[in-house]
UniProtKB/TrEMBL annotation:
Protein name, per record: Diacylglycerol kinase
Cofactor: Mg(2+)
Source organism: Spirosoma pollinicola
Matches recorded under Pfam families: DAGK_prokar
InterPro entries registered for this protein in UniProt: DAGK, UDPK
Amino acid sequence: MIDFRKVLRSFRFAGEGIVDLFRFENNAKVHLLVAILVISAGFWLNLNRVEWAIILTQVGLIWAAEAFNTAIEKLCDFVSPGLHPQIKAIKDLSSGAVLILTIIAVIVGLIILGGHLLDRLFFTT
């Protein structure tokens, strides 16, 4: 039998994690600001359903990666508060993963939003 109180409690804890991510993590705030700008541009450029799905997937992937990165960094700092070369490598790999996703998201954004922007600026009738 499913204990719905446990499920709701789990959702509450996850929600607290999301709020904390955007409240305390500077990079997450930057990603949130960029996402707001991209979504606003998407409305202005009248994206279609597929384009919205792609853009929103990119936004979600970056936010999730930032959350994983933050969790890994906090765990590393808890386990090894001092400087340690292995901890540095772990943290660098984790932040590198966010950077990879961000670069891909920028490319996707340029393809989708840039194409619409070029059409709007140069090919409007």
